[in-house]
Amino acid sequence: QQQLRPNLTFYDLYPPTKDMLAEVSQSLSGANPSLHPKYFYDETGSALFDRITRSPEYYPTRTETGLLTDYAEEIHARLGQPQIIAEPGAGSCEKVRLLLDAWQPRHYMPVEISRECLLDASRQLAGDFPNVHISAVCADYCQTIAMPDALKQSGQVVFFPGSTIGNFEPSARADFLKGLHNLAGAGGALLIGADLQKANTQLNAAYNDAEGLTAAFNLNALHHLNRKLDCQFDTANMRHVAFYNSDHQRIEMHLECLCDQHIQLGERSLILNSGTRIHTENSYKFTEQSFSAELIAAGFKPLNCWTDPQNLFSLHLAQA
Ligand code: AVJ
Question: Which terminus, N or C, of the chain has the lesser number of Cβ atoms within 10 Å?
Answer without folding.
Answer: N
